[in-house]
Structures are given as C-alpha cells and as structure tokens.
Amino acid sequence: MSHSKKFEVDGNKRGLVVELFPAIFAASERMSTRAICRFLKDEHGINLSVVTISKALKDPKKYWNLFFDIIEPSVLSYEKMEPKEKREDFLYNDEDFKKVEFPGREMVRKVLLKFEFARAIDLLREKWFSIDYETRVRARPYIAERLLGKVGK
After folding, report:
1. Secondary structure (H, E, C), the chain
2. Rounded to an integer, what distance in angstroms lies between the CA atom of residue 56 and that of residue 62?
3. Distance CA 153, CA 150 (A)
4. CA distances to 31, 36, 118, 122, 136 from 108, in Å
5. Do 86 and 151 touch, CB atoms closer than 8 A?
6. Could you tell me how far CA 61 lies from the centroid of its own chain?
7. In Å, how far are 82, 90, 143, 150 from 16, measured between CA atoms?
8. C-alpha torsion 17→138→140→24, nearest 10
9. What digits encode the pLDDT tens for the residues 42-100?
10. Sequence ranges of the domains in the chain
11. Which residues touch 48 (CB under 8 Å, ≥6 apart)?
12. Dihedral sign, CA of 10, 15, 21, 23?
C-alpha cells in the first residue's frame, strides 16, 4: 500500500516535469541542474530531483513532444478557425498571435466554435506564447518532425 502511494506521487512529478519543461529547458542555458532543482524548491516549493531534471534535459525531443501533447488540441482548434495559417508558422509568430482576439458577433454567426476557439487561445497564451521566443525557437527542431507530419492532415 505504501509503495503504491509513493508511485502515485512519482507519477505526478513526471507530469510536473512535462509542464515545467520549457522553463527547465530555458534555465539550463545558464544554470546547472542542481541550481534549477534548488531554485524550484526554494522559490516555488517544487521538489524535483536533480536526476529527474537531468533525465528530461538529456532527452529534449521526448519532453518537448510530451509538452506539445498538452497544447496540440488548442493548436488544432485554432487551425479550424484559421485554416490558411500553417502550424509551424503560427507557433512562432508572436505578432500575429497578439492580434488574435475572441471572435466577434459577425464571426460567431458564421462559426459555432467560439467557445472551443476561446479556450484554445487562452491555453496557447498561457502555455506556449508565455514561453520566451528564443526558447520556442530552440524547441522547434525537436517538434519539427511532428509538425511537418501533421500539416497535411
């Protein structure tokens, strides 16, 4: 019983590493894994081991793809509203994203996806566009294969 409780906590930490991976990836440019671990504990009360952080940093493609699993449904919702824009361009175009707003009445009459679209924009703003541009560009090669494979679908 005690082992199963411990496993459940460890499972939550794996999900936490995925959620935090963009920040960990960005911080790894200037900080050691020990410093990242210490910062997360001291500043945010998050206990992730050096081994957990190191493991994630040693396989960035895997962790960027796991992170992208979180935002991909929102990207797909956005593409339903803006089918002309390619995903690989959209994800790296901050200026165009800043112009995106919740659809107005005219668009609502034409498209019934307003709620899905609004949720997608909120999630993308919070999870993807909150990551600094340089980090997103550094992530591009890790998710490029995935992006290119789904463009035609």
Report:
1. CHHHHHHHHHHHHHHHHHHHHHHHHHHCCCCCHHHHHHHHHHHHCCCCCHHHHHHHHHCHHHHHHHHHHHHHHHHHHHHHHCCCCCHHHHCCCHHHHHHCCCCCHHHHHHCCCHHHHHHHHHHHHHHCCCCCHHHHHHHHHHHHHHHHHHCCC
2. 8
3. 5
4. 47, 45, 11, 17, 31
5. yes
6. 13
7. 31, 26, 20, 26
8. 10
9. 999 999 999 999 999 999 999 999 999 999 888 888 777 766 666 667 788 888 777 76
10. 2-58, 63-150
11. 13, 16, 17, 20, 37, 40, 41
12. negative
Angle, helix 2-27 to helix 133-150, in steps of 10 degrees? 110
pTM comes to 0.75
Share of the chain above pLDDT 90, in %: 46
> Within 13 A of 80's CA, how many CA atoms are on the CB side?
18
Structure tokens at 82: 């803006």
> Which has the closest alpha carbon to 22: 138, 148, 144?
138
Cβ atoms of residues 65 and 143 within 8 Å:
yes
